[in-house]
Every structure is written in C-alpha cells, then in structure tokens.
C-alpha cells in the first residue's frame, strides 16, 4: 500500500502534485476558463446575497481556513474571519442568513466542527463544507459541499488534505467573487492559469528532499523551534509548527512575525532555531528585518525563500527554496518543505511517523 515509500506520510506528501491537480480540475476548466461547483446545491444561488463569511475548522484544517479567509477578503471583498470550531461553538457568535459559514474538515466527522455547524444552523446561516470524504457528516449538514480530491489520507499528520483544501478554498473564493460580480472573465482566466502551474511547482519542491534531510539532521537536536510568517505565510508558519510537534515531539510554535517583539523574542538564543517563511510575496522586507533581529540575538535562522533570492540566501544560516509561484499560491509551495522537514526530523529521531503517540486521525469526541 505504501509502495516505494517507508511511511504513508511521505507517500502522501509526494501525492500532492496529483491531488492538487485533481482538486483544481474537478472544480474548474482552463479552456474555456470556468468554475464548476457541482455539489454546492441550494448554496449556489444564495452566494450573491452573502455579506460575510466565517470559516471554521480544527488543527490543519483551521490553518487552511486561515488562508481561505485571506482569499475571500481579497477576491470577494467581503468581511471574512477564520475561527477555531471548538471556540466558536461555545461563544455566542453573531450570525444571520446573510452569513456564509464554511467548515473545513478532511474527515467531515470532527465533533467540534459538527457542533459549530449546529450552532450556525440554529442561527440560519448558509453553510458550505470543504471536505475530503464523500458522504461524511459535514456534507449532510451543510447546504453545499466542495470536495477536495486528495484521496484517502492515512498518515495521522495531514499533508495532502491541507494543500487540496487551500486550492479548493481559492476556487471557492473566486466562485463567491463571481457571484458578487467582482470577477471578470479575464481575471478568472489569469487565476486559473496560475493554478495550472502549481502542481509542477510542488513537484519541483519535492525533488529537494535531500537538501531538506540535511537541515532536518541539524534541527533534530533542538528542544524548541519557532516558525515565523506574515500575511499568507502566517498560517503556513502555524502549520509548519503543528507538523513538527505532532510527528517529532519537538516543541514548536507558529507565530505572526509581527508578534516577535511582543514576547517571543525573549526566547531567542543560539540553541533556539527559527524557521522563517520569507518567500517573494510574504512581506519579504519585513521578514528580513525579523531575521536580522533574531540573528542579532544569536538565533540560527532557516529561511524558506524563493529560488534565486541571493539576498536572503546570504542572510539566513540555511535556506530551503521554493520556485516562484503567484503570490496567492505561495502558501501551498512554502508548506511543502515544512512537511518534508517535519517528516525527516521525526524519522531521524526514530518516531512513529504515521501513528504519533496520543493522536487519532479523526477526533469524534471532545
Ligand atoms: C494535523 C491533523 C489534525 C486535523 C484536525 C481536523 O496534522 O491532522 O490537526 O487537521 O483534527 O481534522 P479534520 O480535517 O478531519 O476535521
């Protein structure tokens, strides 16, 4: 079942180019440029009336939702928030029939997501779920579904379901923009053209596994690792930290880089490495100043940078590179080296990668 791969996690990391392509082309065509959302059901006609979007999810799916939030604000021009479903369900969220609640759940069975959806339903919100499992519970509760086409994910650490959820949310944000009359045919064509390049870019990152492995050997001895990002790279930093902690048991934190001076910088010392996501569009110059501040305190920095970025390559203590992709797709490219890094660190430390201690693939109890 794992074929040539020693672990499902590695196999699933390598399945991403195909999973991403399958997800994109199940929801869109390039020629003619068009979006097809066959499972939106009654939600399709109501998208034009939506005034606000709330995205909910847990863990990795929440991180995908945080990327989706930024897409919806930028493309559809309506307020969007991403919230942890376990918090959302116990607040008194203000929702109405002009609010669209988008739940993101690979399994479609996560209890906190389902309970949050029940709260949303009670308030009369329109609901769409982004799900990887046909017929799962979230798809039964929601008014409409956007399926990701990642195929079965067996590794407890989610990888291909993150990247496919991000591209599904990208396309859904375009669909909402279209319903709101904010997307021209030309703009749609440009977005689809960018998306069409993505599987090849991801394949390119995957070819760097040997380089990542070298970085992994040096990080494997760390007790703590900080992941920093800004803008679209902030959720990627959160996801990089989550991947590392769950499979390698190294304490890792994902932070918005702008928060550094508000506390975390106190931790920096030579034995505390940082991974900084500083690709072309990820507020790169701001990240450069964060990196310099960390280095001034003796902290070693591994940068995730765009290929050919000589300045950052010279500045960082080590770099992992990703090919240039459109600004909106940088989160997908940048997360791949972090997935590989978490995997390699865990293998180096002798951890059970596919079945980390204390974790279940689907969390159906609180
Ligand atoms: C992390 C991971 C978990 C899940 C979370 C939500 O690698 O797998 O954080 O993302 O339990 O699960 P779903 O997406 O099934 O709702």
TrEMBL record:
Give EC number(s), comma-separated.
Answer: 2.6.1.16
Per the record, the domain of life is Bacteria
Signal peptide range equals: none
Subcellular localization is given as: Cytoplasm
Q: What is its main location?
A: cytoplasm
Molecular functions per Gene Ontology = glutamine-fructose-6-phosphate transaminase (isomerizing) activity
User: Which regions span the lipid bilayer?
Assistant: none
Catalytic residues (positions): 361 (for fru-6p isomerization activity)
Q: Which residues form the SIS domain?
A: 43-182, 215-356
Q: Which reaction does it catalyse?
A: D-fructose 6-phosphate + L-glutamine = D-glucosamine 6-phosphate + L-glutamate
Provide this UniProt record's keywords sorted from A to Z.
Aminotransferase, Cytoplasm, Glutamine amidotransferase, Repeat, Transferase
Biological function: Catalyzes the first step in hexosamine metabolism, converting fructose-6P into glucosamine-6P using glutamine as a nitrogen source.
> How is the subunit organization of this protein annotated in UniProt?
Homodimer.
Q: What is this protein called?
A: Glutamine--fructose-6-phosphate aminotransferase [isomerizing]
Q: Its encoding gene is what? A: glmS
Within the intact protein, the region shown is 247 to 612 of 612
């Amino acid at each position: 079942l794992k074929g040539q791969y020693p672990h499902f996690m590695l196999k699933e990391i390598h399945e991403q180019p195909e999973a991403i392509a399958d997800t994109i082309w199940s929801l869109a065509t390039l020629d003619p440029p068009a979006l097809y959302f066959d499972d939106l059901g009654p939600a399709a006609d109501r998208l034009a009336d939506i005034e606000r979007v709330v995205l909910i999810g847990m863990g990795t799916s929440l991180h995908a939702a945080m990327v989706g939030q930024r897409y919806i604000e930028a493309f559809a021009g309506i307020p969007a928030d991403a919230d942890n479903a376990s918090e959302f369900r116990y607040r008194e969220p203000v929702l109405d029939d002009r609010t669209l609640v988008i739940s993101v759940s690979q399994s479609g069975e996560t209890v906190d997501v389902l309970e949050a959806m029940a709260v949303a339903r009670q308030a009369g919100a329109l609901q769409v779920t982004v799900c990887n499992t046909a017929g799962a519970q979230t798809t039964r509760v929601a008014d409409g579904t956007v399926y990701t086409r990642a195929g079965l994910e067996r590794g407890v650490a989610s990888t291909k379901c993150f990247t496919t959820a991000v591209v599904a949310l990208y396309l859904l944000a375009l669909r909402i923009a279209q319903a709101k009359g904010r997307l021209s045919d030309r703009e749609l064509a440009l977005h689809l053209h960018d998306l069409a390049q993505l599987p090849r870019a991801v394949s390119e990152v995957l070819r760097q596994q040997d380089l990542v492995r070298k970085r992994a050997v040096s990080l494997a001895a760390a007790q703590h690792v900080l992941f920093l990002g800004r803008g679209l790279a902030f959720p990627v930093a959160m996801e990089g930290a989550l991947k590392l902690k769950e499979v390698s048991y190294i304490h890792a934190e994902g932070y918005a880089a702008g928060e550094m001076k508000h506390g975390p910088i106190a931790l920096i010392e030579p034995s505390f490495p940082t991974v900084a996501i500083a690709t072309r569009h990820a507020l790169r110059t701001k990240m450069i100043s964060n990196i310099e501040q960390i280095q001034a305190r003796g902290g070693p920095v591994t940068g995730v940078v765009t290929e050919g970025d000589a300045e950052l390559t010279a500045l960082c203590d080590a770099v992992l590179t990703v090919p240039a992709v459109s600004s909106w797709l940088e989160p997908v490219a940048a997360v791949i080296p972090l997935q590989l890094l978490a995997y390699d660190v865990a293998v180096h430390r002798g951890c059970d990668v596919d079945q980390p201690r204390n974790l279940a693939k689907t969390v159906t109890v609180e």
